[in-house]
Amino acid sequence: PEDILHSCTHFEGKAVEDLLPLDAQTLQQYEALFEDQSRQGFRVLGVAYRFMPKDYTHAIISDESGLTFA
């Protein structure tokens, strides 16, 4: 999740349409949650997305930026 988080600029609020900026304080909260869950032996996965045009035919490394943490 920490790699995914650092590629994100926003996160979902209470609804998918409720996108909020991923500021330093929120990033720290997510990282603390990840560390706590990991210490307890849980495997933690992070999921993020970015909408692309329908005619976009292939992904490149630079596409992995400006993501929304889900």
Report on this model:
The chain is α+β, with helices and mostly antiparallel strands and 70 residues long. 29% of the residues lie in helices and 19% in strands. It has 2 helices and 4 strands, in the order H-E-E-H-E-E. The chain has a 4-stranded mixed beta sheet, with no helix packed on it. Strand 1 and strand 2 (19-21) form a beta hairpin. The longest helix is centred in the middle third of the chain and has 16 residues, at 24-39. The radius of gyration is 13 Å and the shape is globular. The model has no long low-confidence stretch (mean pLDDT 91).
Mean pLDDT: 91
Rounded to the nearest angstrom, the distance between the terminal CA atoms is 11 Å
Derived from helix and strand composition plus strand pairing, the structural class reads alpha+beta
Enumerate the spans where pLDDT stays under 50 for 5 or more consecutive residues: none
The helix content is 25-40%
Q: H/E series, N to C?
A: HEEHEE
Radius of gyration: 13 Å
Q: Categorize the overall geometry.
A: globular
Mind summarizing the main beta sheet? 4 strands, mixed
Beta-strand residue fraction = 15-25%
Number of strands: 4
Widest sheet, order of strands? 2-1-4-3
Put simply, the count of helices is 2
